[in-house]
Design brief:
single chain, about 160 residues, alpha+beta, PH-domain like, seven-stranded antiparallel β-sheet, two-stranded antiparallel sheet, 3 helices, disordered C terminus, PI-Interact_SigTrans_Reg, PH_domain, Pleckstrin homology domain-containing protein 1, PH-like_dom_sf
Length: about 160
C-alpha cells in the first residue's frame, strides 16, 4: 500500500488524489501546521486544507485551482487523531494514525490543536467505511457522544 505521505506526490498523482475535490474554495478547515517528514524526520511548516474527507497540504497559503498539493491524506483510512505532546515532548502536538503508520503535527496554539483534532475527528467519522452515515459524533465535548443515530434496519 502506498504511504499516505506520498499519496499525492509525482506528476499527475496530485490531481488524481484530489479526486474532484475543489480544495481551493470553502474548506472545512485550513491553516498552518508543522508536520514531520516521512523519511528525513525534519519539521516543515505547511498550509493544510481539510475538505470532503481529504487533508491536503501545500507550501504556502495562497491556494488556487492551479495549486498542486504537496500531499494528501484520505481521512477514511485514519483510525485516530489525538494529542501527542507526551510522545513528542512538544507543545501543541497531535497525531493522526492509520493501521500502518502514525503522522505527527504541531499547531501554533492549544486552541488550534483542539480545533484541528475536532475537525479531523468529525471528518474521520463522516468518511469512515466502518460507521454508518447516520452516526455523527460530538467531538467538541470532552466526552464524545452520538448525537444522532438511526437504527440500521439491516442489522
Amino acid at each position: 500500500m502506498m504511504s499516505l505521505w506520498r499519496a499525492a506526490m509525482g506528476s499527475g498523482a496530485a490531481e488524481e488524489a484530489a479526486d474532484g475535490v475543489e480544495f481551493w474554495v470553502d474548506p472545512e478547515r485550513s491553516g498552518w501546521l508543522t508536520k514531520q517528514g516521512e523519511y528525513i524526520k525534519t519539521w516543515r511548516r505547511r498550509w493544510f486544507v481539510l475538505k470532503q474527507g481529504k487533508l491536503f497540504w501545500f507550501k504556502d497559503s495562497y491556494v488556487t485551482r492551479s495549486s498542486v498539493p504537496r500531499g494528501v491524506i484520505p481521512v477514511s483510512t485514519c483510525l485516530t487523531v489525538k494529542g501527542a505532546e507526551d510522545v513528542l515532548n512538544r507543545q501543541f502536538a497531535f497525531e493522526l494514525s492509520t493501521r500502518q503508520e502514525t503522522m505527527y503535527f504541531i499547531a501554533d496554539s492549544e486552541k488550534e490543536k483542539e480545533e484541528w483534532i475536532n475537525s479531523i475527528g468529525r471528518s474521520i467519522v463522516q468518511h469512515s467505511r466502518s460507521v454508518t452515515h447516520e452516526e455523527v459524533l460530538d467531538y467538541d465535548s470532552k466526552n464524545p457522544t452520538v448525537l444522532t443515530s438511526t437504527p440500521d434496519p439491516q442489522r
